[in-house]
Amino acid sequence: MSKPITDKEQQVTYLKERLEIFLEVLDAIDPETTELEDIDRLIQMMDDLEDKMEQFNAREQ
């Protein structure tokens, strides 16, 4: 398992990179052929981002 990110700047960079990946996946989806599993994956990606933000915020307090 990797070491927790505690530096604020690294946390922001990590979140930006993850958000960029999400946006790339979202852009690549064809609405005509998207299946429920694809939508579930997008929702899971957003949930993971939210969880990570909460973890980072908890470390600051």
Quick structural overview:
This protein is an all-alpha fold and 61 residues long.
The average pLDDT value, as a whole number, equals 90
CA-based gyration radius: 14 Å
Task: Compute the separation of the termini in Å.
Answer: 23 Å
Low-confidence stretches: none
What is the molecular shape?
elongated
Number of helices, where a helix is a run of at least 4 consecutive DSSP H or I residues: 2
The residue fraction in helices comes out at over 70%
Share of residues in strands:
under 5%
Name the structural class.
mainly alpha
One letter per element, helices H and strands E, the order comes to: HH
Tally of strands: 0
Largest sheet: none
InterPro entries: YfjT-like (IPR047670)
Can you walk me through this structure?
With 61 residues, this protein is mostly helical. Helix content is 75%, strand content 0%. The chain has helices at 8-28, 36-60. α1 runs antiparallel to α2 (36-60). The model has no long low-confidence stretch (mean pLDDT 90).
List the helices and strands and how they pair.
Blueprint: H1 8-28, H2 36-60
Helix pairs in contact: 1-2
Looking at this protein, list some descriptive labels:
mainly alpha; YfjT-like; 61 residues; 2 helices; single chain
